[in-house]
Amino acid sequence: MQLVEQLRAARSKKDILLMTHLVLGYPSFAVNREVIQQMVANGVDVIELQIPFSEPMADGPMIIKANQDALANGTKVAECLAFAAEMAAQYDIPFLFMTYYNILFKYGVEEFLRKAKEIGIRGCIIPDLPPEEGEEYLRLAKKLDLAPIQIFAPTSTEERMRTLAGHGDGFIYCVARRGVTGSKTEFDASFDAYLARCRRATDLPLAVGFGISNQEDVRILTGKADLAVIGTATIKLVEEKGAEAVGSFIAGLRG
User: Fold this and answer.
1) What is the DSSP string of 32-63?
2) What structural domains and CATH numbers belong to the chain?
3) What does the pLDDT read at residue 104?
4) Separation between Cα atoms, residue 104 and residue 77, nearest integer Å
5) How does pLDDT run across 91-113, given as a tens digit for each residue?
6) Percent of the chain with pLDDT over 70
7) 68-99: per-residue pLDDT in tens?
C-alpha cells in the first residue's frame, strides 16, 4: 500500500494522526529504541527518523544540538540504516527518513533510496532539496514507490504550493510558521488562512509541524490538519526526564 493510502486509511479511524521525530544516535540508539517503543505503544501513527547532519538548516537549537551530539558520538549513516531496518521490521507503522541532501549525495542518491526502500522506509523529507534541483531524487523515489514529501511554508505562494504538490506524494509537510523548529507557534487567523491555502493547493494529507508541543496544540489542529508533528518537544522531554516519560506524554496529546 502506498504511504498516502495508508495514511488515509489510518485517518478514517482517528480525528488526527500523530507523527513524531527523533534524531538517530541521540542520545544513543538504545534510547532511540526505547523511545520508539513508547511512541508506538501510545498511538503514534508515523515516525520521522532524522539521520544526523552537521548543518541542519531547518532545525532549531534543540535539534541542532541533538544532531551535533549524535555526530560527536560517532553516529554513521550505515548505523542509521541498520537501526531503521530493525524498527521498520518490528513495528507496523510508516517510518520516514528526514535528512539533508548532502547525506544522499555522499552515499549515492540511487544507492541511498534503494537501501531505504529495501529496509522498509516509506518516504523521505529532504528540506534543502527543492524539486528544481532534485530531478534524480524525484525520478528514483517515484520509481521505487518512496514518497518524496514536499514542504509548504507560510511564505509559499499558491502557485508555488501547486508546483511542490505536483512533485510530492504521501503528504505535504506544512511548516506552521517562519523560522526553524522548536519555537512556539501562534494559531491565529493568519494561520487558518495559511492552512486554507494549503488545502486548496493539494488533495494530499496535510501534516503541520514546527512548535507543536502539547494537547492544546493538537486539539486546535484537529479538523484542520491530518497529522500533527511533534519534534522538539519529545527530544526535550527525553533530555530532561528520560525515555520513560515519552509514553504518558504521547498518550495525553489526543486527550
Assistant:
1) HHHHHHHHHHTT--EEEEEPP-S--TT--HHH
2) 3-249 (3.20.20.70)
3) 98
4) 10
5) 999 999 999 999 999 999 999 99
6) 96
7) 999 999 999 999 999 999 999 999 999 999 99
H/E stretch holding 193 = helix 189-201
Angle at 148 between CA 210 and CA 80, to 5 degrees: 75
59 labelled catalytic: yes
* Residue in 162, 167, 60 with CA at minimum distance from that of residue 124: 167
Look-up: residue for cell 542520545?
27
Note if 135 is an active site residue: no
Instruction: Provide the 3-class DSSP secondary structure of residue 48.
Output: strand
Query: Can you read off the three cell numbers belonging to residue 14?
Result: 482517528
Please tell me the pTM assigned to this model.
0.94
**Start-to-end Cα distance in the chain:** 30
**Contact present, 191 and 176 (Cβ < 8 Å):** yes
With vertex at residue 176, the alpha carbon angle to CA 50 and CA 13, rounded to the nearest 5 degrees, is 75
Collect all residues with Cβ–Cβ distance below 8 Å to 118 and sequence separation of at least 6: none
Catalytic residue among 5, 34, 48, 118: 48
Catalytic residue among 5, 34, 55, 59: 59
Closest CA to 39 of 244, 201, 191, 203: 244
Residue 228 phi, psi (nearest 5)? -105, 130
Kindly report, residue by residue over 201-242, the tens digit of the pLDDT.
999 999 999 888 999 999 999 999 999 999 989 999 999 999
Q: For residue 27, which phi and psi values (nearest 5 degrees)?
A: -75, -15
